[in-house]
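Assemble and predict.
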Amino acid sequence: GAVVSQHPSWVICKSGTSVKIECRSLDFQATTMFWYRQFPKQSLMLMATSNEGSKATYEQGVEKDKFLINHASLTLSTLTVTSAHPEDSSFYICSARDSDRFNEQYFGPGTRLTVT
Amino acid sequence: AQKITQTQPGMFVQEKEAVTLDCTYDTSDQSYGLFWYKQPSSGEMIFLIYQGSYDEQNATEGRYSLNFQKARKSANLVISASQLGDSAMYFCAMRVLTSGSRLTFGEGTQLTVNP
């Protein structure tokens, strides 16, 4: 299957700092990528849809100024958590849909963010 | 709006036996797709199987099969010959054509395979 990578796999940062998470589709082009957040023992919550070359679409209740998304190319989307607070600590997962294959959608390995 | 319901928070199965994980869905769209993902403790979401709403036959992928009953709006995952490595969280998800590629997830079922 297709491969989606995320970097870093885990990160610890101090309150008030910003953290950037990268999501890459390694062997296919992804015009659309998605960012999810997952708390322990819970399901995935969609945060935003990232579209190559245009602004991201945020889900209701997600602060766009806090979670900055950039999808600069067909293989890279980034999520920047700005002015991080301890409540932003979570597992962040990206997914990408192969532009040529509607039936397939692949997930990255996730990034565990801890804000101290 | 779309909704996925997984009513089994936890399931246990003996190694080598089959197990069925339940999933029901609700949508008014006629064109949709149903997915199952496995999430081990490492956190990675592993794609298992896909069923399209217009597919006449149930999807199968190795030891995984999807019991698709459209009239009942159910898409249960059947894992045959369970292995210890199957212990993980399993999520059912749906995508409708009118919502682009957005996936709606169920709450998940934690499967434990006992030796």
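Chain B touches chain A through 21 residues (CB under 8 Å).
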